[in-house]
Design brief:
With 511 residues, this protein is an alpha+beta fold. The chain has helices at residues 3-23, 29-52, 88-115, 156-171, 174-187, 192-215, 220-236, 253-260, 272-291, 437-442, 472-482, and strands at residues 59-61, 118-120, 123-129, 136-138, 144-148, 245-246, 296-298, 302-309, 319-324, 329-334, 340-343, 349-356, 363-370, 375-382, 422-423, 427-429, 446-454, 460-465, 486-487, 490-492, 495-497, 499-507. The chain is 37% helix and 22% strand.
């Protein structure tokens, strides 16, 4: 799974949520809190929705030709160390696991406090504990309010205000939503915006509960004095980690007081119509975002396509060879993780596309036309049958005639195909190409296809590069080594002749 597209999708969701909150800045805290609920629900559902949503792959302009890649064994072509890969996925997974453990510890601490608390007055949903310094709500499905031991000395007015605030949390199902938001933040922990969004969600929830208490008739000044009094008890008492949803934090006191005493604040609760509208908006954004796949290149004079099996499932990692003998073109690419491939740029003309994948029979499509300014789309369906071979350096194969643009003078060496009375050549010396260090450092892989002429003495007398899209440094390394190869002379009726053979040098970083 590529991480960059996932981060891009989460960024789009968070950016839209921040934009909505800015638009609703004059609205109530309850309405803005619904927006944050929606975005965290979308972040949790995004991995599942990506699997279920229909695929949509937009086209995008490409700035450079497609880089050819193919499975190769770098250890065979030099003594360079294996590819250095940053364990990005492993680091992400470790962060998720640690944050999940922290969240489990948070709720475990809350359960421990509830078990050791005592019932307060006659209400089983209200308890008292010396292990908490601030009123808080604990539990997900059956939440309870836990008050500090000093609550027995509170005035009736303070107790009513505190219970009204905490009951607002329970009515709004805030414990469950906060748990879901923290789980989403754990999954997307590498994204800084998700933590900012979590802090804003908690802030809006507390302000929405404050607005609910004021709507029931509590004077803002009295409510503010109770908050200040409770914060004073925190500053003079021991620091405790209590978990749950505490009523107030000292760092938030100034902002809460400013919002309470602002006579122009919108304190209306969100209506059911607003809830329905935000839910529909969340789905309307989530589904298209989930359906987006990595952009396919908008090719000019190229071929793009998908590889599937007989059931319609995508086949990743297939080896696609695009060739044209008439144009002297041969390019090799690998399908990506969703079975897509692209080769560009290509000259206008007719091409043959061969596809091989492990566990499937080879498939060949002839007569693929490439026209100017268009990307030719194709769909390849593989049938179970054979296992595609893995190619390494091939210096000896079936030599074939090399076309010549001008007639050769009398007595010039002939280059003919092996067959009949022609004795095939054998390799005597192979110098293995060295993997260019700068390519290994940059993570560059590729297949270099060369066309070599074996002279009458068995030496390489002419060498040219067939595929043009592979990295030039890889091509130079391959040509430098192949120039030093030596063969036994090819004989025709007992006489040495020049022949042509193809050489594929495959560069792949060691796994």
């Amino acid at each position: 799974m590529e991480l960059v597209p996932w981060l891009a999708k989460s960024t789009l969701l968070l950016a839209l949520a921040f934009a909505a909150v800015v638009v609703l800045r004059k609205g109530s805290a309850d309405l803005r809190h619904l927006v944050w609920r929606g975005v965290f629900a979308a972040l949790l559902l995004l991995p599942l929705t990506v699997r279920l949503a229909p695929e949509w792959t937009p086209a995008a302009e490409v700035d450079a030709p497609v880089r050819t890649v193919i499975t190769v064994f770098a250890g065979e072509f030099g003594e360079a160390p294996a590819e250095r890969r940053w364990p990005v996925v492993e680091i992400w997974a470790a962060g998720v696991a640690l944050l999940m453990l922290r969240e489990a510890g948070r709720w475990g601490r809350g359960a421990w406090i509830v078990r050791r608390s005592r019932q307060f007055a006659d209400d089983p949903g209200i308890r008292c504990s010396e292990h908490v310094a601030m009123p808080a709500v604990y539990g997900l499905l059956w939440p309870v309010i836990v008050l500090p031991a000093s609550a027995r000395e509170w005035t009736r007015e303070r107790l009513e205000v505190v219970l009204a605030h905490e009951r607002m949390h329970i009515e709004r199902a805030d414990p469950l939503w906060f748990c879901a938001a923290r789980l989403a933040a754990a999954v997307w922990w590498v994204h800084p915006l998700v933590w900012f969004a979590l802090a804003r969600m908690i802030r809006e929830a507390e302000q929405a509960c404050d607005d609910g208490v004021l709507a029931r008739g509590t004077p803002p000044a009295d409510y503010a004095s109770h908050l200040v009094g409770m914060v004073r008890t925190i500053s003079t008492g021991p620091v405790r980690y209590q978990g749950g949803l505490p009523m107030i934090r000292a760092s938030e006191l100034e902002r809460r007081l400013r919002a309470l005493l602002n006579p122009f604040s919108n304190r209306r609760p969100a209506s059911r119509a607003s809830l329905a509208l935000i839910t529909l908006a969340t789905l309307a954004v989530l589904l298209p975002v989930a359906a987006i796949r990595t952009p396919a290149a908008a090719l000019e004079n190229g071929i793009r396509g998908v590889v599937e099996d007989a059931t319609g499932a995508r086949v990743p990692g297939g080896r696609v060879t695009v060739s044209s003998d008439a144009l002297g073109v041969r390019e090799i690419v690998l399908c990506n993780e969703v079975g897509e491939f692209a080769v560009a740029p290509l000259a206008e003309g007719e091409y043959v596309v061969n596809v091989a994948a492990k566990g499937f029979a080879r498939m060949s499509l002839a007569g693929i036309q490439v026209k100017g300014g268009e990307a030719t789309p194709i769909r390849v369906v593989l049938n179970v049958g054979g296992v595609s071979e893995q190619l390494t350096v091939r210096g000896e194969g079936t030599p074939r005639p090399m076309p010549s643009a001008t007639p050769r003078p009398e007595g010039a060496p002939k280059r003919i195909a092996v067959g009949g009375s022609v004795q095939a050549t054998r390799m005597e010396k192979m110098v293995r190409p060295a993997y260019p260090p700068e390519c290994k450092a940059a993570g560059i892989q590729g297949t270099v296809v060369l066309r070599a002429v074996i002279g009458k003495d068995g030496a390489i007398v002419n060498l040219e590069r067939v595929n043009k899209l592979v990295d030039a440094r890889l091509a130079d390394a391959a040509m430098e080594a192949v120039k030093q190869w030596r063969y036994t002379p090819t004989l025709l009726n007992g006489q040495p002749v020049e022949v042509m053979t193809d050489v594929e040098v495959n560069f792949t970083l060691a796994p």
